[in-house]
Design goal:
The chain has 159 residues and is mainly alpha-helical. Helices cover 70% and strands 0% of the residues. α1 crosses α2 and α4 crosses α7. The chain starts with a helix and ends with a helix. Keywords: DNA-binding, Transcription, Transcription regulation.
Length: 159
């Protein structure tokens, strides 16, 4: 342990020689040792220390939504999964892409377009698979964002 303290002291040339410094160094080294020990025991704990990543909030939400399109994600559920407050999630998302609800709708509608073009699933089946309450509500949201009915996409695809 004293070797680690000496290494730390040599690397930190700014440290002045006072009576309290060796104790502070010892405490810092012990803290690092304990943290590395806990991380080795439980690799999941490392996410708490490295929660701030380069991955955008919108990318994290995209992964969650894609993993379960049928789920109606609430702000509370998303913020819980991402280990942040609801207000912080909304603020960060708004800066990145706009409102959370619009973003999730756009993700689901992108998937609905893919399914309309590449499968023979009914509109009702697609709406249900994407977590919409009813085919009529799905059609309403689809038309709001894309200015076309899902049935018209199917007709254009067949031509």
């Amino acid at each position: 342990m004293s070797w680690m303290i000496l290494q730390y002291a040599q690397q930190n040339r700014r440290i002045k020689k006072t009576a309290s410094i060796p104790g502070e160094i010892h405490n810092k080294v012990m803290m690092c040792f304990l943290l590395s020990f806990f991380i080795k025991i439980n690799s999941n704990i490392s996410c708490l220390f490295y929660a701030e990543s380069s991955e955008l909030i919108s990318e994290k939400i995209t992964k969650l939504v894609i993993d379960d399109y049928s789920k109606n994600w609430s702000i509370k559920e998303l913020s819980s999964k991402l280990l942040m407050s609801s207000s912080s999630l909304k603020q960060k998302m708004y800066k990145e892409v706009g409102s959370v609800t619009d973003f999730i709708n756009k993700l689901k509608l992108t998937e609905s377009l893919r399914r309309l073009r590449r499968t023979n699933d009914s509109i009702s089946t697609i709406a249900n698979a994407l977590g919409y309450k009813s085919p009529s509500y799905f059609t309403k949201v689809f038309k709001k964002y894309l200015n076309i009915n899902p049935a018209d996409i199917r007709l254009k695809q067949r031509k």
